[in-house]
Amino acid sequence: MATAQSPKRVHQVAVLLYSGADILDFAGPIEMLSHFTYNNSVTDREIAFKLHLVARTPTVLTGGCMTITADGLISETIKRISDFDILVVPGGMPSLLQGFASENSPEYQFVKSFVDLPQKGTEERLLLSVCTGALLVAATGAFGGLMATTHHKFYDLLTEIDQSIDLVNCIDSDGTMRYVDGGLKKDGLRVVSAGGVSCGMDAALFVGELKVGREAAEVVAKMAEYNWKRV
């Protein structure tokens, strides 16, 4: 059962962006997490998450049509990677994500640096992959023997990257499985992976439940008029 941690703490969330990222992969989780508060107020909000958009360049063209301005560059933000409690890795074309890993790109280095952080006190860190973002996460070894999922068209590709992954087929679950909680690793990192595209919203609500509580997550889902498929 998910339980909230550290009451009233503002969790710092890095959202990795890149040219070609799928819009809903990152916009969905941002929409959900940005509405979490500790007091369920729309006016005097006690926010639970502060989101930071991080990219290789100052602007990125996402989805082939939407230009996003980053809050920080990877080259600078990676120097303070330990400031972040949560990292969101959205998907895009599989060849793009594979390229990031094979080229030892700034995107790969950013994810790997977060994965390799030592445990900080008793507070767990959390890595959320959405859709094919799991391919980049898998290349860092973060899934290592854990349950994980990705877009249904790329299950084989995910396990090719890391054969130790315990693959969860969300498509065969009659739509009830939208994300997978891989669990908490020994270094204090929890790894959550979402299925394709819209699944990221369900996973983000689960992340919010972990950090703020189920009631808060249900309030956000209702506010968004979204039918949360909670696992």
TrEMBL record:
Pfam families: DJ-1_PfpI (PF01965)
InterPro entries: Class_I_gatase-like (IPR029062), DJ-1/PfpI (IPR002818), INH-QAR (IPR052158)
Protein keywords: Membrane, Transmembrane, Transmembrane helix
Every DJ-1/PfpI domain range: 12-159
SUPFAM superfamilies found in the cross-reference section: Class I glutamine amidotransferase-like
UniProt superkingdom: Eukaryota
The keyword Transmembrane is assigned to this record: yes
Record-annotated membrane-spanning stretches: 126-148
Stretches assigned to coiled coil: none
PANTHER family noted in UniProt: ARAC-FAMILY TRANSCRIPTIONAL REGULATOR, HTH-TYPE TRANSCRIPTIONAL REGULATOR RV1931C
Full protein name: DJ-1/PfpI domain-containing protein
Lineage: Eukaryota, Fungi, Dikarya, Ascomycota, Pezizomycotina
